User: Fold this.
Amino acid sequence: MATHKITGTSPASATTEVSTPVAVGKYDAIRVVAVLQGGTGGTLNPRLQSSWDGGTTWWDIVSFPQLTSGASATTTTITLSRFNANTTPTAIGSGTSPALAAGTYLDGDFGDMIRAAYTAGSGTSAGTAQTIWVLGSEARAR
Assistant:
């Protein structure tokens, strides 16, 4: 099992910040453990995005529950597998334009790179430290 840690600070104004990507190309499945907290003055919409083209284009794959201003740190976990299929058409966003509904995720192939994206709502005046671990399960012979 390999561990990648995504750290950063959510935006201090009504903008979107993205993290440095981590490479997850060789994993069959990933467990995501996110410790997230609200900023000051506005809501926070934390997401995970994936890229299938080496980091040129980013698509939403996980939209964590929205956090209110000053929300205490909460830990959320989810497991994504390349072998599960999402068979329902779902509106998603790309880049800094989120559209995946809060509290939802897309299972199935998650591309070879993952990053966090944080979109702060109107009235946000200070960001907060965020930490997301991506735990990769190595591919096995079938």
